[in-house]
Design a protein that fits this description.
By secondary structure, the protein is mostly helical. The chain has helices at residues 2-23, 61-114, 133-150, and strands at residues 27-31, 37-40, 49-51, 119-120, 129-130. Helix 2 (61-114) runs antiparallel to helix 3 (133-150). The model has no long low-confidence stretch (mean pLDDT 84).
C-alpha cells in the first residue's frame, strides 16, 4: 500500500520544484519593432536587458511593535480628547441653563419691583389675596440673593 502512493508523491514533489524554479525566473525588458517597451521571461531581442526585481522588504518585528504601540497611544489620546470635548459640551449646556435661570430670575424680580400689587389665588376666584409689603419685600430679597449667589 505504501508503494501505491509513491508515484503520486513523486508527481507532487516534481510539481512544487517546477513552481519554485519558475518563482526565481528572470525578467527582461526590450523595445520591439513598433517602439513599444516589452517585458518577458525570455528575451526575443538582442538588446534586451535583465531587470532585477527587488524583494518586498520584510518588516522588522520591533518596527511593527512600535507601530502598534503608537496606534494604541493615538487611540487613547483620541478617546481622552473626545471625553474632554463631551465634558466641555456638558459644562456649556449647564452654563446656558444657569444663564437662562438667571435671566428668568431677573425678569421676575423686575416684575415684582414694578408691579403695583401682587396677587395670589385664594378660595374665592373673584377675590384674589393681595400680598402684604412684608411678603413682597421678602420675595424681592429672596430673588436678589439668588441672583447674587448664582449669577
Amino acid at each position: 500500500m505504501i508503494y501505491r502512493d509513491a508515484p503520486n508523491k513523486f508527481l507532487i514533489i516534481i510539481f512544487f520544484l517546477f513552481c519554485l524554479s519558475n518563482a526565481n525566473a528572470e525578467v527582461y525588458k526590450w523595445i520591439d519593432e513598433n517602439g513599444k517597451v516589452v517585458y518577458g521571461d525570455k528575451p526575443t531581442s538582442s538588446d534586451a536587458e535583465q531587470i532585477k526585481i527587488k524583494k518586498t522588504p520584510v518588516q522588522d518585528p520591533l518596527v511593527q511593535e512600535r507601530y502598534e504601540k503608537q496606534n494604541k497611544l493615538l487611540d487613547i489620546m483620541k478617546q481622552e480628547r473626545d471625553e474632554k470635548n463631551a465634558l466641555k459640551k456638558e459644562e456649556k449646556k449647564k452654563k446656558d441653563e444657569q444663564n437662562k435661570m438667571c435671566a428668568d430670575a431677573r425678569k421676575e424680580l423686575k416684575k415684582i419691583k414694578e408691579a403695583r400689587y401682587l396677587y395670589e389665588d385664594s378660595d374665592d376666584p373673584n377675590n384674589p389675596r393681595i400680598w402684604t409689603d412684608e411678603e413682597r419685600k421678602a420675595t424681592e430679597i429672596e430673588f436678589e440673593n439668588y441672583i447674587k449667589k448664582n449669577c
